[in-house]
Amino acid sequence: MPRPKHCRRICGMPARTYFKPAGVPMSALEEVVLELDEMEALRLADLEGFYHEEAAERMKVSRPTFGRIIETARRKVAEALVAGKALRIEGGAVAMEILKVVRVFRCSDCSHSWELPYGGGRPAECPACKSRNIHRAEEDRGPRFGGRGGPGMGRGGRGFGRGCPRS
Ligand SMILES: [Zn+2]
């Protein structure tokens, strides 16, 4: 059994999680799976231009570990490009940097609960019964991912990957 990986910190889900060469039917495609921590390493080092040391710090991993992650990531992307394979981005032992993106409110009068994104003001009244007797519910959830979530992203948790200790 592989040693459980320490959770790596990532800043969010990529906008797109599947890339395929144009004009090739899916059935004829081979896939390369790029894990979310590898994607984050590419983003930090190759897009944002961070030195490995700082990128490692941001992902909460050691510098040698970051070096291995980025090396694997680059090899996978190169393999997809050179060999014309599809690239699926999912999984990995990751913890989201932004743990709460949705606030949950509940009405004390009618028990209606609803969600609002962070960044807005506090709602004035219950959208169902117009009561002003509302409060923040405790069950704030982490980001929810549309479509295929990676196997590493647990459902109903706070964005922690499966097997990530909540240390
Ligand atoms: Zn209400």
Could you please describe the fold and organization of this structure?
The chain is an alpha/beta fold. It folds into two domains: about 10-95, Orthogonal Bundle (Arc Repressor Mutant, subunit A); about 100-135. About 25% of the residues lie in helices and about 20% in strands. The chain is built from three helices and eight strands. The strands form three sheets. It has a three-stranded mixed beta sheet. The longest helix is centred in the middle third of the chain and has 21 residues, at about 65-85. It is elongated. It starts with 7 loop residues before the first strand and ends in a 31-residue tail after the last strand. It binds zinc ion (ZN).
Write the layout of secondary structure elements.
Layout lengths: L7 E3 L7 E2 L11 E4 L1 H12 L4 H8 L3 H21 L2 E4 L4 E3 L5 E6 L5 E5 L16 E3 L31
Parallel strand pairs: 1-5, 3-4
Antiparallel strand pairs: 2-4, 6-7, 6-8
The structure holds zinc ion.
Zinc ion (ZN) binds next to loops.
The residue ranges in which pLDDT falls below 50 over 5 or more consecutive positions are 141-167
State the major sheet. Answer: 3 strands, mixed
Class by alpha and beta content = alpha/beta
Bound molecules: zinc ion
Q: H/E series, N to C? A: EEEHHHEEEEE
Tertiary shape: elongated
End-to-end separation:
22 Å
The mean pLDDT is: 78
The CATH topology of the largest domain turns out to be Arc Repressor Mutant, subunit A
Question: Taking Cα atoms only, what radius of gyration do you get, to the nearest Å?
Answer: 20 Å
Estimated share of beta-strand residues: 15-25%
